[in-house]
Amino acid sequence: MSTPPTTLEQDKSLVDAVLNGEAGAFERLVRLYQKLCWHVVYRMVKHPQDTQDLCQEAFLRVHQYLHQYRNESALKSWVAQVAYSVAKRHLERKRIPISEPSADPDGESPLDRVSDDFDLEAACIDGQSAAQLHEAIDCLPPLQRTILTLYHLDEIPIGEISIITGLAVGTIKSHLFRSRKQLRDTLDDRIGVAA
Questions:
Q1: Residues near 100 by Cβ (< 8 Å), separated by ≥ 6?
Q2: What per-residue confidence (pLDDT) applies to 119?
Q3: What is the pTM of this model?
Q4: What is the DSSP letter of 113?
Q5: DSSP letter for each residue of 124-179
């Protein structure tokens, strides 16, 4: 699902083109990031029609607020942050909790030592089909599901996920730890995967 990598200079060039009203520039931006936007929003709301509507809202906001993009991080992270924010507000309006009540630790914990080279699929499915893993991922709370897939499936670094979600790095690591533990427990119960 990865979006093609761009440099900050390429991002600035595209943003300038959009802001200057260059024909087709905004359409290029949408084409470049529509899959990422869909992925972020869908992982949060899990409803295709809502996702479609919320992606449209996200790109309207991108267009409306693009002048606020400062080129300090990847445009991809900024667009994902807008998509995440739109999806989060949607869930809040519907009063759907986005995480477990105790998922935001205040201080450092052993969870902060989560390895960046952790292989989720190898650890959880050990020869079983990926479909069972993805089914288990869908059962996670929206925030954990989103962070887990951004990190392990979209391969977005923890620092960028922090920018996207506005959460501290330690909190993201905690969510990753909890998500992986819940997946191990779920898959162990379903198919006998060893933790």
A1: 141, 144, 178
A2: 52
A3: 0.72
A4: G
A5: HHTTS-HHHHHHHHHTS-HHHHHHHIIIIIS---HHHHHHHH---HHHHHHHHHHH
Q: Which fold has domain 110-191?
A: Arc Repressor Mutant, subunit A (1.10.10)
Pick the CATH number of 8-93 from 1.10.3720.10, 3.40.50.1220, 3.40.190.10, 1.10.1740.10: 1.10.1740.10
pLDDT at 177: 92
Say whether 185 sits in a helix, a strand or coil: helix
Encode pLDDT of 92-120 as tens digits: 998 888 876 544 444 433 334 345 554 55
Give domain limits for the chain.
8-93, 110-191
Question: What's the rounded Cα separation, in Å, for the pair 172 and 162?
Answer: 7
Low-confidence ranges of the chain (pLDDT < 50): 1, 102-114, 118, 121, 123-128, 193-195
Distance CA 49, CA 100 (A): 25
